[in-house]
Amino acid sequence: MTRDIPDYPIDIFTHDAVRNAREVDDALREYASAVRLADGVVMIGRHEHVAAALMDWKRFSSTSRPWHDPKSLRPEILLTDDPPTHTRVRRVIGDALSPRTLNAMRTLFTTGAERLVADLRARGGEVIDAVEEVTRRFVYTVFPDALGLPPGDRTHMHGFSHMVWATMGPENDLFREAMTEDFEPVIAWLNEVCERDRLDPDGFGMLLFKAADGGTITLAEAKLLLQTILSAGADTTYITMANALRAWAEFPDEFDKVKAEPKLIRNAFDESLRWDSPSRMAGRIATVDVPIDDLVVPAGTRVGLMFAAANRDPRFWDDPDAYKVGRDLKHSLGFGYGIHACVGRTLAYMEADALFGALVPALERIELAGEVEPWMTTVGHGPARVPVRLHFRG
What we know:
By secondary structure, this protein is an alpha+beta fold. The protein has one domain: CATH 1.10.630.10. 48% of the residues lie in helices and 11% in strands. It has 15 helices and 12 strands. The chain has helices at residues 15-19, 21-31, 47-55, 85-96, 99-122, 130-147, 156-166, 173-179, 183-193, 204-213, 219-250, 252-260, 265-275, 307-310, 345-359; strands spanning 35-36, 42-44, 60-61, 127-129, 282-286, 290-292, 295-297, 302-305, 363-368, 373-374, 383-385, 387-392. The strands form 4 sheets. A 5-stranded mixed β-sheet has the order 1-2-8-5-3. Strand 10 (373-374) and strand 11 (383-385) form a beta hairpin. Helix 7 runs antiparallel to helix 8 (173-179) and helix 10 (204-213) packs antiparallel against helix 11 (219-250). The longest helix is centred in the middle third of the chain and has 32 residues, at 219-250.
């Protein structure tokens, strides 16, 4: 016997809710296997159901989603497609990530990481922001270089990403705050740097335009795809790495394990992705009536699949609030799941391998030096500031 999806009495996208997103999302997960928000969106937060929905693109389609405006500034490609369009476009990225391309990127990432760590060592003992001065600084330098974007001021990257993330949530106060940033200069910068004639002829971005020359995608799709990768591939990576640095400060015994066994770096990165996901949810639309335990999500309902809550679901994870570098993470939802699993996963790993490969052997310990400040956006999640002292080995 089925029952109606219960209404949820709390707005999970207010300023206070975002400041306490872990507790807010976990409470929603425990309230019921699916809940309905005041605007009709259904949220699903338990690992079993989120994982199943991510694998089932036919019943949970990406072609529409909560608060979806196809005229927004967010590039409308890949994340808003189902097969066969999604398959065709995703293949372009896979083909572009050839061994030759990856080797060139790896060298670029490693060189950038070594320069950054040398600078950080010279500032040893100072209180620094692990976000702005370490992980975002690194990613915003090496990632656009790898894509082949022209050199120059990249301060607009954060503004663009902040606005894109705002489009994934409801048009509330946080949305309006994001959109009051310097909107026009940011969009003008984005359009300029992603033009074909501004790209490095040997960079990754140019490979997308060459795919368009071959007819696999259109020229317009090539530019949209480059803009999508620039936005999606930057913020999630630097936030996850900042979370790792925070976790290593809060769980020093786990950091000792990483120092003792550098092969754990990648699993440590994955565990930080599970421990505090940089995205609270993915959006879908139900194409048919879908049962969730004794509830039914009606066809046509827009649905939020809550990555972060599912990645802390005690029904699935042992001691989910603890950070454990040796945890079995093959069913973590941090990179997504199914056909929409993160296509930039390889690049994220390469960046983490480079930065942590240079930083971990140089460090004795990491010390939190103040309160962690949350990123004030609705669906994106993570720290805006993590004050730390990096204690380097002598």
